[in-house]
Amino acid sequence: MAITGLAARGPRSLLRQIREALASGGPAQARLDMVVRIIALSMVAEVCSLYLRRATSDLELFATEGLNPDAVHNTRLKPGEGLVGEIMRLGRPLNLSDAPNHPSFSYRPETGEDPYHAFLGVPVLRGGRAIGVLVVQNRTERLYSEDEVEDLQIIAMVLAEMVAGGELVDEAELKGVELAPHRPERLKGLKFAEGLAYGEAVLHEAPVASQQLLSDDATREEERLKTAIGALQSQLDIMLDGQHGIVGPSFEVLETYRMFAHDRGWNRSLEEAVRSGLTAEAAVNRVRSEHRARLSQARDPYLRERLHDLEDLNDRLLRHLSGDGAAPRVLPENAILIARNLGPADLLEYDRTKLKGVLLEEGSGISHAAIIARAMDIPLVGGLSGLRDRVSQGDPVIVDAESGEAYLRPRPDVIEAIMARIEVRNLRRQEFARLRDTPAFTRDGAKITLLMNAGLTVDIDILHETGAEGIGLFRTEFQFMVAEELPRLEAQTALYSHVIDGAGDLPVIFRTLDLGGDKVLPYLEADREDNPALGWRAVRLGLDRPALLRLQLRALIWAAKGRELRVMFPLVTTVEEFRTARALVDHEITWAGRRGRPTPSVLRVGVMIEAPALVWHLDALLSMVDFVSVGTNDLMQYLFAADRGNPRVSERYDFLSTPALRVMKTIQDACAESGTPVSVCGEMAGRPLEAFALVALGFDRLSMPPSGVGPVKRMVLSLDREAARRGVVHLLKGSGGSLRSEIETLARKLYVSI
Fold first, then answer.
1. Does residue 190 lie in a domain region?
2. Which residues does the annotation mark as catalytic?
3. pLDDT score of 489 more than 80
């Protein structure tokens, strides 16, 4: 194809010329050489060069117009080397008027680039990953204009798709180019829900694939984009105004979504990309790639967090453009869900029979996604830095939620090893199933009551399968978090009736709403707090909004229908708070009686001990309550001043440390002296080694996730409680910190199955 005259300015004309050049056929290298020649002419540049990243991470010169042609496929740059390496590292354009004097400039004599001063390089981005660099250069010292930078970025985006599609580079050459991650990788994270799984990666809310990059009707594409943005903005406005249900993201995230969705800069970037000749979908992906590349390098954690907000915003916009955003996701038989983070309802939208595991880039062990994963017995590992950029849809993936690791594209020997471990776990499950109806007595005759934590209707269906003797903690807030509006009295009553009916003769303890903190509802107005874990949450919120709490208490009383009702209040910090909350219960009982409603045959009202302040006021509290439950998750984070949702500090304390066990012993001793029933619910109760220590301290009621009942029961059946008590009490007399290794040694010495 002959090129005559200067190409017209603007990426649309340039991209059309590139398409025409490709249509002429010929060898791959010849087509690539033609493309850089067209770009150089259009940009009025004396040099245009394309570098692609090899699987070794080296950057190789694949084509050039203006530099020495002998350097093609011979010049290679190490990661981070030179200006080209700097662009790859930063993931953003570099525009210089005097490139040779830049500190990152690397002189490569074989290229012959000595005379060129003006330098503009942009990353060639695909899926947010830089797969190469596109460069233009001129002899004159000058900065390229913003329009030129914009044009070159659009060209680089289209080149990325052409390279990936095999239009520019020979298929044999593509084998060595890293278009997507392909090597085996092992990532270390945190285990949020135990288990093992092997399957196929499914990207959560993956972007809708753009079938067409270039548009012949910019006006129509701009109109499509404006319509989709308008629909997105309206959707988010409705969510935040409390007129529509929220699925997944917290109020704060949606608030950020709305801010970004109305942001003029974001809208303008999308519109400009469409006007340059891209389809609306391609424009969204191009802006997404720019944000990914720029913000993923930010050191400021706030800025990195904004990247994830933008990711979800772009995904939502793409679904509006596609028109099938509400369509159900089709999962492979062994799906491993990959996401940056998940909200409490996101996990419930997937087919449980096909979803085998979850990997999160962020998350925490106390998030509701983690709680639901544990309830549904789905292995979950979080805190996997850079996960989304390291895995592609369909990659084979291992979730090792025993060690807190993820294996991406694992080697055959690793797959074989994990399958063997999964088989061992299955055999253990069979053993636990055989123990289901065996009463949990220690070897020396002490009865230990094992209860189950719940919060979903599916939990009630498996209650009798676990061997649990009741529900020690039913979290009532999930119904509120997935509802379109505040659940009415009838809806709450129906849920609680279903739970009581499903439990049959087994006891159920309902925890009143534990909202606030990280569980803010879109229809419940709340100010943003600097430290929500210590803020307006749980019983504090209920007492300040008594109509909300009374409505729930009324629903619980109606649901009991003359049967036994057990209710407990979370995060009580003072005796006065419990007294006020108990008065609301009594008021509702009186209200129901006056209207001829059946009242509970037995009413038991308890409190959760989660605030350290209450530990030193047990003498006044225990005479007022019917039972107490120790919420070890919150109690320990407050005791050690370490946010359990923050991966930087969540591992800084140990449930089996001297201070933690002494606090637990203080509570148990006080309850034993007063004759107050006490149970432990939380992570501590569901782990065999921690449960061993609790039983040794005197606790005989433990409430745990369904998956913990079998392992803890096996431990109890192998335990001599008195021998364990003597050993643990002796260890507590020491002055050390964590006693984990000593307690594990003691358990093994006593032949306890942990």
1. yes
2. 368, 681
3. yes
